[in-house]
Write a structure and sequence with these properties.
single chain, 217 residues, alpha+beta
Length: 217
C-alpha cells in the first residue's frame, strides 16, 4: 500500500502536512512537516520544524530541502545556529530520499503496520472515491510493546488509486509506573503548486522562529 501511495502521490502536485507528538517521562518531542511539490517532484520544498523539551532544556531544529530537476538546496538551523547551508546536484540517490520525504513514506508505513485495519466506509470526495480504514487494536511494532498499550486508535483515508489522503494515530502506553503518548496526523491536498524555478530557502524561515508550535503553513 505504501509503495503504491509513494508512486502515485509523487506524480500528483499538492501539499503534504504531517505532525508528530510524543511524550515519555520528562521529555516531549513535537515535529511538524510541510511539503509542497509539483508533478513528478519536478520542484519540491520540504520544511521540517521540531522541538525537543527535556526538563528545563529546549532544543529547536529547522530543516529545509528545496529542489528543482537538477539542483538541491539544503538548510539546517539548530539551537539558533546555522548548521548547514549549501547547494548540490540532484543525484539519483538524493532523488530517492526526496521521494520518501515528500510522500511521508516512513511515518505512514509505521502507522499502517501498527494497526489491524478494516474498511469503515466508502465515499466520494474531491472528485475521487475515498476508502476509510479504521483500527482500534494495536498490532505491535518497534514503537511500543503490545502488552503495554492501554489505548490505541488509527484512521486512514485512501483513494481507490492508492493515494493516502489523510491519517491519524493515537497511542497511550503504560509501563513501569510511567505513561508514554504518541500522536500522528497526516494530510495530502492535491492542488497546483507554484514554486520558484531556482531552489531557495524562504526568507521567513531564515529570520523566523524554528518552534513548530509557531508553524502556520
Amino acid at each position: 500500500m505504501v509503495r503504491t501511495h509513494r508512486a502515485n502521490a509523487a506524480e500528483t502536485p499538492g501539499v503534504v502536512t504531517h505532525r508528530t507528538n510524543s511524550t515519555a517521562r520528562n521529555t516531549s518531542i513535537v515535529a511538524a512537516v510541510r511539503v509542497a511539490a509539483g508533478p513528478n517532484l519536478t520542484r519540491v520544498r520540504y520544511v521540517s520544524r521540531s522541538q525537543r523539551v527535556a526538563g528545563a532544556e529546549t532544543e529547536n531544529r529547522t530543516t529545509v530541502v528545496a529542489a528543482n530537476g537538477t539542483a538541491v538546496r539544503q538548510y539546517t538551523v539548530a539551537g539558533g545556529d546555522v548548521a548547514l547551508d549549501n547547494t548540490r546536484n540532484r543525484t539519483g540517490l538524493f532523488d530517492r530520499s526526496l521521494r520518501g520525504l515528500s510522500t511521508a513514506t516512513n511515518p505512514l508505513r509505521g502507522a499502517l503496520r501498527r494497526g489491524n485495519f478494516t474498511v469503515a466506509g466508502v465515499n466520494d470526495r474531491d472528485d475521487a472515491t475515498v476508502v476509510t480504514l479504521r483500527a482500534d487494536r494495536y498490532a505491535g511494532g518497534q514503537l511500543y510493546a503490545a502488552e503495554n498499550v492501554a489505548a490505541y486508535n488509527a484512521t486512514v483515508r485512501i483513494t481507490t488509486d492508492g493515494v493516502i489522503r489523510s491519517a491519524t494515530e493515537r497511542i497511550v502506553s503504560r509501563a513501569d509506573g510511567s505513561e508514554r503518548r504518541y500522536g500522528f496526523t497526516y494530510e495530502f491536498e492535491p492542488r497546483p503548486v507554484d514554486l520558484p524555478r531556482v531552489p531557495r530557502v524562504p526568507a521567513e524561515i531564515r529570520v523566523g522562529s524554528d518552534d513548530p508550535a509557531n508553524d502556520r503553513s
